[in-house]
Amino acid sequence: MKLRNIIMALAVSAAAIFSPAYGQTSDGKPVAAAIEQFAAKLVGRIGFAAQEIGSDEVIALNGDETFPMASTYKVAIATAILDRVDREELSLDQMVEITPDMMMIGDAALSDTFVHPGLQLSVANLMEIMITESDNTATDTLMGQAGGPAAVTENLRRLGITDFRVDRLTGEIIGEFYGLPGPATMKVATEAFKARPELATIVSDRNLDFEADPRDHATPLAMLKLLLAIDSGTATSAESRDFLIDVMSRTRTGAGRLKGLLPKGTPVAHKTGTIGGVANDVGYITLPDGRRFAIAVFTKSSETSEANRDRAIAEVARSLYDYYYVGQMAKQ
């Protein structure tokens, strides 16, 4: 509660001092500093970037620092797929076969449900479970439909987004995290975990060597730029944008992160990411008056509990919610 009181006071102060020029970048610096002081107790390292839709103000902390994206990079994959849909190179109702050897561990709604051959899903349904359940089989299947990691990165560059790279399939990322002899397919992982049961216990342990690998990293500001490009219709058509944000609004992972401290019923469209000491969440939050802001929160190197990592992200989201909303109310 102490942090929230500080943020609310800063919001009112900013509105009083800077009005009517509310939105200057300097306004958000005390907010970022207050959040950093509090979050340092909860995570190893945190970075975030946020911007109200339609405003020029960016509030960021460690915004230019790179972080492992984990599954938040699935937003970039979805954007590349939808660009192909807009170009009529793919269609959302196109059926894709998923064979047993394509099944991945990790977030695994498909591999946990379908154990027999004969599975086909549409591109739209693959995207649904890639985002809402963070399913890794769906993700790597769609990565193939997008043309591979290099094609996803190329699409980001087309949008003018740098400091954001997509290098590997999720199976490869997980396989390297666990030290598996190959991508983390069900077969490879089952054999490895049988031979080394202790692997199952490192799922939430930080891995500094893994984090130091620059592949599949982005800065909070680069992720924010992608979110804004999606929302503005720059990244995709308006129809594809609406489809993606609608899917993100149904995300079922990370209830304690961006959503964790927001008022009940606050609309949030988001995508989480988790691996080792990394816990992330990115997306869009809607304020009570209908205004919205995009937000990307990355963390890494944490040895704290998963609950504390989630709490750090939740505190960032709630602090910015209060800053944007209370500040606006104070101006009126």
Automatic annotation (TrEMBL):
Transmembrane segment boundaries: none
This protein's UniProt keywords: Signal
Official protein name in the record: beta-lactamase
Keyword Signal: yes
Cross-referenced NCBIfam families: bla_class_A (NF033103)
Domain Beta-lactamase class A catalytic: 48-299
Family membership: Belongs to the class-A beta-lactamase family.
Enzyme class: hydrolase
Cleavable signal peptide: 1-23
EC number: 3.5.2.6
UniProt keyword Signal present: yes
One example of a Gene Ontology biological process annotation: response to antibiotic
UniProt GO MF annotations: beta-lactamase activity
Domain of life: Bacteria
Catalytic activity, as annotated: a beta-lactam + H2O = a substituted beta-amino acid
